[in-house]
Each structure stands twice: as structure tokens, then as C-alpha cells.
Amino acid sequence: MDSVDRTSDLPMNFELPEEIRMLKDTVRKFVDRELIPIERTARDGHKLKPEVLAHLRSRAEELGLTNYDVPVEYGGLGLGLVAKVTVWAELARSSALPTRGLEIFGPAVSPILYQLNPEQTERFLLPTIRGELKWCFAQTEPDAGGDPGGMRTTAVRQGDHYVINGMKRFITNADDADYVQLIAATDRAKGSHGGISAFIVDMKTAGIKLLRAQELMIDDRPWEIAFDNVLVPVENMIGAEGHGFRHAQDWINVGRLRHGARGIGVIERCLEMGAGYAKQRKTFGHLLSERQAVQWMLVDSYIELHQLKLMVYDAASKYDRGVDIRTEAYMAKVFGDTQSFQAADRCMEIHGGMGLATELPIEKFWRDQRSMMITEGPIEILKMTLARHVLRTYG
Ligand SMILES: Cc1cc2nc3c(=O)[nH]c(=O)nc-3n(C[C@H](O)[C@H](O)[C@H](O)COP(=O)(O)OP(=O)(O)OC[C@H]3O[C@@H](n4cnc5c(N)ncnc54)[C@H](O)[C@@H]3O)c2cc1C
Q1: How far is the CA of 47 from the centre of ligand 1 (A)?
Q2: Which of 3, 33, 323, 341 makes a 20 to 30 Å CA pair with 218?
């Protein structure tokens, strides 16, 4: 952990550049016109209905937002992270889209794929950007989730191949994927200190078996996958042996900041809904908005929204300037996930029984944000890492 310490300066200019303000307005209108009206009907289980996906993609194309997060050299808009957190925050005002695997603005391309060598780039990255190949990312195992250093899936070199054996769990979109970005132990004794490597594995390779999709309280249906003597050519390793965690780090930081950005959108929508309802619902002869208990719920979320925006934009602008944002990204995830869940909980309370109704998006925000506190790093584990940083900095 680096960046934030006692001596670091905070940027003093909080104005968004004009082009990002315009982007924000465009996405906000898109969310208001296209997503909020279809919140309860857009999906079939955990996937967008194909006709909905096609319509949203064509609207996104008309707005010029396709491939907004793909670098210019690969044909995308190449927006920086400040612009991206703006888009993510706006999109999160609606519960219409899946929380993972947003594909309306072009295929999802994780940053780990930008670390492929030129030959792998031709085989995997470019077809992925063109929408011809889909991927999933497999790190978690039944006995190693928050602590991936203890993973048991092994990759053992045999001549020109690695032989993969083990089991992965909770793998999003494994049923749709053409290839998996697989994290496996090349040296279990070293664990996360140089013993973990990353591979690209064709999902059709002999020995890979999708065992079952996990039913959850949220819409995702992540998969359990078995790897039984799966042969992977050595040229499919990403980077050097033992560098698997290093490659995942950039992706993880951006992914964690994405949680913070998502929290901004969820809190904003919960404020809109909570304040709107409080101003029209009367109990005991008075509007809920006249009750201090209700006002304070809204005010607390409003204060937390402001704090979260400062945290997320500070981290994003540092990232765009090439600063290591590990600490900021961890803090933004902890704070964003926790406070957005709190905002959904307050919004639910203000709505009383209607807060539980599935015709409103509140209960879905509540379920989704609770799940966010566990996925991509449970809060307690992130705090454990942050504690090391705090003790080193202040102790
Ligand atoms: C919907 C969904 C989609 C997912 N998609 C993917 C995917 O595509 N690819 C992938 O690889 N993984 C994926 N995951 C896995 C996810 O990232 C893990 O579930 C998560 O990292 C937690 O791991 P775990 O479930 O094994 O919890 P564990 O590591 O067993 O932790 C359980 C709980 O113990 C507590 N805890 C653990 N360690 C500590 C500590 N040191 N100090 C204090 N408390 C602690 C925390 O409260 C934690 O929630 C997904 C999970 C879900 C639910």
C-alpha cells in the first residue's frame, strides 16, 4: 500500500472537466429514459433479455458510447478512469442492468487482458474487443476465496504444457465464456509470494467441466468448474511464472474503485426515491418529510454521498496521473459498499411495506449492495490490509 499517507496532498480542484460533465449528462439521460422504465422487466433471471440487450446496444451506439473503456489504440474511446467512474456511477442509478458483466457499451474487457503479449493480444484481446470471444475470470476456490494464496488448483509444467488440476467456485459467466483467465498455483509453497500464475485457457479444452450454477439471493448465477488434467500450452501463460497476483493487481484496484463508483449511483437513487416518497406520504397527519427521524436518514446518506464522491474522484484522478491507488481503492470499496447498502436500507425503511415490494427497485438495491460487501474482497479482509498500512504510517 502506498499513495495515501500523512504527507500526501489532496487535489484542490474538484470541478469535472467540461467533456466529462457532458458525458455525465448523456449517461444520466440514457439511464432516465432507457433503463429506469424497464427496471422490473429487462431481465430473464440474471441475464438481460436478448431483445433488450440489442435495443440498449443500439441506443448506446447512437450516443457514441460504444467501447468507452477500450484504449484508443484498440479502437475504443480510451476514456480515463475519472470518466469511467462517472459512467459507472450514473449507470448504478438504475437496477436494470446486471451488477456484473455490463455489456451494453461493448464487451467487458478486464485490464489483465491488456497485459497480454503481442501474440496473445491477436488471439484473445482483439477478438474479445470485437465481441467475438467472451471470457470469465477464475480465482476463487471452495477452500480459498478471500485468501487466494491458499489455493489448491495447481499448474504443473510438463514439457510444452502446464497440467491443471483443481476446482474453482463462484465463477461469473463461465457458461457463456470461450476462455477463462485462470489463476493457479505453480508453486504452492510460495503461495501469493511468487507461487501463483495466470493463464488463458480455452473453455472447450478436454478436462474442463462446469459442475453447477450457484443459486444466490441476487441475480448472479456463478459456476463451479472442475479442472481434471487440463493441458494448457506454455504460450498461454500471462506474463512470467509466479507473476499471477501482480497481473491481477491493476484489475483489482480498478474493480474496487468500481464498487465505490457504483455506491455513488445507488445512494443518489435512494435519496431521490426516499425524499420523493417522504414528501408525499402522511402518517399521523404529517408528511414523513417533516419527521426529524426521516430527515436525518436522508441527511446522513447525503453526507456519505459527498464523502464517497470525494474518495472515488480523488482515487480516479490519481490513477489517471499514474499514481498507485491501492489504498484509495480499498477505502472506496469499504466505504462505498457499506454506505450504499446503508442508503438502500434507509430508503427501504422510509418506504415501509412498499420498500419490500418487488415492483420498486429498493429491495433489489438492498440485496445487490449487501452482496457487494462480500464479492471482490470482503470488507473485513480489506480492512485487515488497510490496518497494516495505518499501523505502518501512524504507528
Ligand atoms: C456473485 C458472485 C460472483 C463472483 N464472481 C467471481 C468470479 O467471477 N471469479 C472469481 O474468482 N471469484 C468470484 N466470486 C468470489 C468472491 O470474490 C468471493 O466469494 C469472495 O472473495 C469471498 O471469498 P469466500 O466466499 O471464500 O469467503 P472467505 O474468504 O471464506 O471469507 C468468509 C468471511 O470471513 C470473513 N473473513 C475472512 N478472512 C478474514 C480476516 N482475515 N479477517 C476478518 N474477517 C475475515 C469475512 O467476513 C468473509 O466474508 C464471486 C462471488 C459471488 C458471490
Answers
A1: 22
A2: 33
